[in-house]
Design goal:
Layout (H helix, E strand, L loop, with lengths): L84 E3 L45 H21 L5 H7 L20 H10 L2 H9 L9 H14 L5 E4 L6 H4 L3 H6 L1 E5 L3 H10 L4 E3 L13 E7 L19 H12 E12 L1 H4 L4 H6 L2 E9 L15 E8 L13 E3 L5 E3 H5 L7 E6 L5 E6 L5 H8 L20 E2 L11 E5 L2 E5 L3 E4 L21 H25 L4 H22 L5 H4 L8 H5 L2 E4 L4 E4 L20 H12 L4 H8 L3 H10 L3 E4 L4 E4 H4 L2 E2 H11 L2 H9 L21 H11 L9 E5 L4 E5 L8 H6 L19 H9 L7 E8 L2 E8 L1 H22 L3 H14 L3 E2 L21 H11 L5 E5 L5 H15 L5 E5 L4 H11 L5 E3 L10 H10 L4 E5 H4 L6 H20 L1 H4 L4 H23 L17 E5 L25 H15 L3 E6 L8 H17 L5 H8 E9 L6 E11 L1 H8 L3 E4 L1 H9 L12 E2 L5 E5 L3 H18 L10 H13 ...
Parallel strand pairs: 2-3, 2-5, 3-4, 5-6, 27-32, 27-35, 28-30, 28-31, 29-30, 31-32, 36-42, 37-42, 37-50, 38-40, 38-41, 39-40, 41-42
Antiparallel strand pairs: 1-18, 6-8, 7-8, 9-10, 11-12, 13-16, 14-15, 15-16, 17-18, 19-20, 21-26, 22-23, 24-25, 33-34, 34-43, 44-45, 44-46, 46-47, 47-48, 48-49
Helix pairs in contact: 1-3, 14-15, 18-19, 22-23, 29-30, 30-31, 34-36, 42-43, 44-45, 49-50, 51-56, 52-55, 53-54
Amino acid sequence: MARKKKVEEKRNDSRFEQLSLFELFGNDISNDDSGTAQRTKSSIIYHFETEESATRNDQPNTSGGEYTLRSDSSGNSDRTANTREFDISAENPSQEQSSFTSQGNYDGLDSQVESDEPQISERISLNFNSLSTEKKIEYNIESIRTLKTIIEEERKATLNEKEILARYSGWGGCPQVFNEDDEKFIQERNILKNLLTIKEYQDAKASTLTSFYTPLPIIENIYRILDRIGFKSGKIIETSMGTGNFIGMMSETMYQDSELCGVELDTISSNIANLLYDKIAVQNTGYESNPFPKNYFDLAISNVPFGNYKLHDKDFNRYNFNIHNYFFAKALSQVRDGGLIAFITSNDTMDGNSGIMEYIDARADILGAIRLPNNTFMQNGANTQVSSDILFLRRNDEKVLSQSVYRTRSRVTEHRYMNDYFVQNPEMVFGQIDERKSQFGNYELTVTTDLETLQDRFDKCIESFPENIYEESKEEINSDLIPIDIEHSTYAINSFFIEKETLFYRSPDYYYPLKTVDEVNLGEMPDDYIVFKTKRDLNKVYKMISIVNSALKVIDLQLKNTDEITYLTERTELNRKYDDFVKQYGALHKRTNIGLLEEDPNLYVLESLEEYNPKTKTIKKADLFFERTINPHEEVKSVENLQDAIRLSMDTYGYLNLSYMSSLYSVNESDLTNELISTGNAFIEPETEKIVLAEEYLSGDIYEKIETAQKYGYRDNQKALENVLPEPLSAEDIKAQMGSTWIPTEYVQEFVHFLFKETAYTSAQIDYDTITAQYYVSKPNYWSMSAEAKETWGVATSDNVQYPKRQPDYTGYDLVDDILNSRIPTIRNYWDEFEDGKKKVRSEVNSERTSAARDLAEQLEETWEEWLYSDYDRKQNLVNIYNRKFNNIKLREYDGSYLSFPQMNRMIRLEPYQKNAIARIMDTNSNTLLWQQVGAGKTFEMVAAGMEMKRLGIRKKILYVVPNHLVSQWQKEFLTLYPNAKLLVASKKDMAKNNRKVFVNKIATSNYDAIIMAHSSFKFLSVGKEKEIEFLNRTITQITDAIEEMQYSYEKNTTKIVKQLERTKRSIESNIKKLTDTPRDETLIPFENLGIDYMFVDEAHEFKNLYIYTSMRNVAGIQTQHSQKASDMYMKCRILQEYGGGICFATGTPVTNTMAELYNMQRFLQEDELEKMNIHCFDAWAKAFGKVINSFEISVDGSRFVNRSRFCKFFNVSELMTHFKTVAEIQTASMLRKELEKSDLGRRNAIPPKHIGGKPQVVSINPSEELEDYISNIVERTEVIHAGDVDPTVDNMLKVTSDSKKASIDMRLIDPLYPDRETGKLWVIAKQVKEIYEEYNQDQATQLIFCDSSTPHSNTQQENGTFSNVYDDLRNKLIQLGIPEDEIAFIHDYNSEASKIDLFEKMNKGTIRILFGSTPKLGAGTNVQERLIAVHHVDVPWKASDIEQQNGRAFRQGNMYQEIYEFRYVTKGSFDAYSWQMVETKSTYMQQLLEGTGDKREIEEDNSNSFSYAEVKAIASGNPIIKEKFEVDNEVKRLESLKKLYLKKKYKAQDDIVLLPKAINTDQLVLKALECEVKFFKEEVMTMNLDRTFVFVNDHGKKYTSIREAWEYIESQYNSVPLKDFKRTYVGGFMKAKIWIDLGKSGEGYVINIETPARMKRIDACNPIGRVNFSRILKKISEFESDYNHVKSTISKLQNDLKVSQQIIDSKFQYENELKAVRQRQKEINDILNQDNQTPIVDSEMEEDNELEFA
């Protein structure tokens, strides 16, 4: 085969649905995207001989039931037909006779069987008759019933049936039939529910406001105008065809002489159109996704959908056209040069400013336009009036002159403009122009009819259109290269296809029959023309494509659940074609066979039909040849127990079908019912009188079920439900913050009226929008506001703000607005600046007014809480509302004790909690989150649950999505638990670009027990284009509908809400565009068609960054990042659920950074539950369960505190967690330990070890001077950054954070030239590791060292002692300390799965003793715990979950030790303090949530109950009272927020009263020492001169008058002793002071100390020059007197400060309540710190004894 160049297929990555017809003013899109339900019926069982038994009797049998095909001269052709395995040796030469005949046809193949069904080509004449609603509904139902019958019977429609189908007119104007409260149409409604799929029913219901077909007279006149223009027939596309009225109304001549196609999104309408018009090709898709060719059509005609939203089409996205204008742009690309367009469109096309008319004018001649009356469509049932135009165009690729009249507008009414074409041609306007106010509050043009009829208008205006200007296309016909037409445009580019027994190839612009090289003149053909060398090759490809077609048909029959006869017939045909091919040409996989297809998109379907074994060089047929690989629901004839009968019935029918269960369980229905009820397994559901499971009936919304039981008199049910009713909460238990979305808006309105003493003329209006969760406050005019609103609750302007700065008014209404919408009040000053002649508005925070506003906010919230429950009726109503909405759930308790796991490895037994988790997963009514501690056995739970569901037939095709590095481990553990499991595991090679198609097709075509693939591979399972568009369009549609309905819900706030919705819509559209622009491989079978019905996702927290939409800004604790992979996972989860599938997420850390991640987990797994609580976005969730707090947090350097807004306070947490636990199976570390301690399985090392000492060992390390200096520099950098005095590209907080974190580990990470101090963190760690190594050497115990900073890389190897990274440096230190190098390993050096398995085995055996790793590499999926004695944390983890992951490697089942170490290394005064603060903030609240038992209803992230993090934070800060200061300052913050500046001074004075006496006492001791020293050295200071009076007396009494000789003696005293053996040494006296040589504490070597009568005083490090050293001693002694005076002055100042502080306190006693609050808080702090699980505050000396100190 010859090919000279490749041609790539362009993909249309559209993402939005189009609406069916007129949709500017109504809701046409259902939010329900559930897939089409399969029609089910009882299976008919037929008996056939097995394929093996049907073979020839003389066929030899080989062992194992396998057969081998070998080519030989005897040619046993029968042998292959029914074998699964054969050799792929060379093909038989005797079988090479080609079946290609001289006529170009193929012999030896079945000719196509012509249908004997009569062809029905009659076209129904359409008549326009006004129908009553009842008649319209009747006709529609009859049409749908007929349609479903024809589809099920797979035939064409008869003439009589066409007449019935033609009566279908959509559901516009028929909302009654879908109204559940309308009893008149209850029968029709039930019929529709039975006839339609869920999606079809929802779509029909949604279309009642918008689906209005074009009146036939309009269509008729459009054709009259086209006839005048000169169009008679041609290639016609109807771009939004409904049931095809435009096709039905064209003349018979045009119909017969034209090539017709249409596009329609609605399934019912599309199918009807297909049956009504036999010759038309209808695509059931959105116009943006249609496959038809460009530059092809002679006419595009339609009534295009109207709407203020956009479709996603890469070719046109840049124009930003609304949908109706997009249709023009798209149609101009599909009609040929000279082709026509006749569209009915919104008048926005011609009157708007979208740029579409300029776009059209540049590409087409505008032939004319008509403006229709507003009531045109009301005659077809529309309940609203719309303005519309008919626009006629002719594409002109050589257009020169602009038709400017169409591009300009003139004012024609008070508020509106109209296109100048209509202004200059008033006869084209079919009525009188006027304007009206629309439902959006703006004005729109109207056209009202007069006495003249519509037809009269058409008759008059037709002469205005040009006559006979249309020219038919002139095509050059090439018998070899056939231009792509409508029929063949649906074939994929670069694909082979068979038509009329001839093989064709489709290129981008042509298709052509394939020939051999000697039959074609290649010089006349394009470069990419395909030819074959021989007819034999041509015949091969023909047969391979025939095999592909059969394989795809077999798959399709399975998807459609076709009857067994039809399915087996096609499967037999597939086997025959395949076997014939193999006998003649060998296996498909042979390079000389499959290589002929090259880039054909079906190549990979073909490859997946064989399984090749390279070792034996044999191939096996895929399962598709022998069994259903995408299984329909198969009948199970018997079960062994009641539980299996219940489970199968629930999965098959969704309820307990007694007849079905009776057959399964072999008991009669009466006995079965008695057993179900008597055993407590089931109850009768009152409304339906159906029997339902007790677990289902006695769980969920109990209030609702009690009311139903009472209504129908089911007392036993009521009693059972009351026994499980959640205990009602009282008012004091319920946090009802202002802004909570469950509180009726009228109460907020009532409160504002009360607060501001409003009158009827000065009241505000408050509205709430559920989509954005925003409150809108429409406040009265400022001058009409009450004094309460302006003065009492408003904030006055500041006196110190001067012109030109402006201070906006801030009234009580602004305050209410802020509080309702969870905003921390912030008031700014504004002023104007001019840059380059342009005015720019600048602003700054007015701290005085902001403080006042926040003070008022707290007061207002207190007033709200007092007022809200002050009225008894209001209180009771609110309590009832809350209990019904949130405290209404009884959790289901799952008991898996009945599970027997018949296929499981009998050597393995599962714990009871694991069985319970499996039972939860198997519940088809709920998704599952396995929120379980590391080591709980989540993997086995998921494996066993999947295999049980597969065994019972509950699920058919199960997918496991696991972390990349755990794929092989998952496979190993799966086969350990289920040795006979048939797995499909995706390796990296499988998912390579050239191989992934084969793998995806294997998923669809094979029947595996489980499919396992990596997180990174999952993205390649692409969702189908149309399905993705449909999915992504929902939120857009919801917002669009909300905008359209504003006038019915709001008054004053309509404009505000519409603007906010539009902003939200734009934000969502932008996000969707990013998601949908991702390239995809469209040749793969779409995700939704793979047959996957259950998905497990391990380590699901990797997908937590799902996009959320929130109005909160600059608030910490709210997720701001979102990832493509999370969005992809979300879409697939929703699709799975809509198709009846289920999901199980598994992770030990679903929430790691922010509470928003809990919300996202709910979106993945229980979005329907959120919507039931009226929570449609994050802000609604946040207002129901949380609050933004303005608090102080420790600064970046650990030395001070900064003000920050954080979403960190949570309330009503019991109800939040109850709702969440409907899907979550939680197993914390303490819960797991309790479960394992009571286990009776007797497993060895089953209980995780505890901490030695009961807690982590905190190793505190003193900072070096270099580090202290560097931290000081960091503080200076931070101040400069905050002041905005540095370019962010030069320095920013990200760099500060990174540098500080590095410095806290080792200063050499900042600069390798810094010294390697023996007292540094890395040496401390190395020595600690060595100590543990020696202590447990006999056990060959192992240790893990975690470090996420400075990980090793191939290009940073440590050479010649130069520091490069922490890993290499620590390893070298360990080697220096005596640990063998081969016992130390880095996880980073083990990249392959095989090498990791080997590493883990060596760790568990003790061959490798020390393993380094980072959290991502070592923190998950590494089972190395068997000998682990210690875990070391080199750096502070960023996430609290990282600690859990790291410790989870050791503190888990299977460890031989009952107690082990955890070491946390913290450098004092370093960035570690800030890092631990961050970890504490992230960890505390989730620990509280999980450990709460219902009595703790509020939590706050920065209130610590986490012993470990709180202690570490205090030690790391280098200040043991920092924790106390943090808490006290939080209380000071409260006082500051109340705008009491004098209280701030008072609190400072209180601190001084405590601190100053200590400082004075300390200084007085120093002063006393200095006084003694001044007197002692006074004479020496006066007389000493180093040049004249120098005297040094050594320790032996020898005098030295030479400075050089004296220092040489001193040097001899320490140079003669090795550094490691040196101890502090007395060397002599100078100026009456004793001189000592010691080792510096900070690694600076030898230092000089002097001993005075009062103390030991450090001088400096030893200098090689003696004069320098003695000069320093002299200087220090000489400074004693100045030091004395300075300290004395300082004491005096402190005493005065103390006096002033006392005066401040005394003078401010009038604020006694506030002072009591501070003192009470201090007492509470002391009580908390003295709890058993907390570290008490101790003084520095006590602290030294409680920590591991390394000097």
